[in-house]
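To: structure desk
From: M.T.
Subject: fold request, one chain
Message: Could you run this one when you get a chance? Sequence is below, nothing fancy, just the single chain.
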Amino acid sequence: MKHKIKTGILSYGLSGSVFHAPFFHAHDGFHLIGIAERSIKRAQEKYPEIKSFNTVDELIADPSIELVVVNTPNYSHFDFAMQALEANKHVLIEKPFAVTVDEALKLFAAAKAKGCCVLPYQNRRFDSDFLSVKEVVESGKLGDLVEVHIRFDRYRYEIGSKVAKETKVPGSGILFDLGPHLIDMAIALFGAPSASRKMKGYFRPNSEVDDFAQLHLTYLTGLNVFLTMSMLVADAQPAFVLHGTKGSFVKRRADVQEQQLVDGMSLHDVRYGKEPENHRGTLTTISSEGKRREEQIPAKASSYLQLFDAVYATIRDDEPYFISGEEVIQQLKMIEGTL
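Reply: Done. Structure tokens follow.
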């Protein structure tokens, strides 16, 4: 049996109930000790054996907890992560890892001083749509890439009720909400760019935060990557469009795992992580003889459990995490506009 990592989660909203608790509960490398819930106590209804902490302070102070999951509002990530590190806990931080580059550097320094791990939670690297794109890129079938578009579309015209996302506090707005996902995908596929440029827009009536953002990443190879996120797209466009010297690949966003988890599907269900047939990507290539060929590329099943495998391997076996600290800093520099 594995030497289980005793874990506590700081919040049980959508993030805690969908993206964290089910995985810590199911994974044989972790023991979910408890979750902090200040008012409404829902976690124990689903997981009767866990502790319900009234405050974050109580959870972090619990000597039995080794790993703290920081999935609270963006502006609080740094303070809570630092508090956990000072208590000699390992830390897994929801995106964004921090609100500024300076905060991230301080967290990495504190983790090193304490001999602890501080890790970014970037689950979208384990989405079937992204993995399908990665497979096509690595196959070389597109030739030298020239132009890549990655986007995250939503339609939410009304101002939401979440203060941390919809008011002028550190880490609010769509660039901080969705930007870390898209930037991390670009870094995972192509590495860090030589330069980046960002633009933001405010289009919903009375919006205090950006509801549109785009980053243009340029590479020394000549590759241009455009990352777009919007709250005002009624007809969601393909999430991935790649053009190279030998062909193109177009893929819709699947996001099957999130919906399946919201619907309560078991992680062990044979349908979990599998895309519908109509979500196949389209690969169009041109041969050296000029012949056009079109293929429908099915995505393999995927699971966020792989992320938790990586967390376990890093903490218990000292294996390198799949995202480096340097990549986190590069991501935040692009959000800040300093790269």
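Reply (cont.): The mean pLDDT is 95. Let me know if you need anything else for the meeting.
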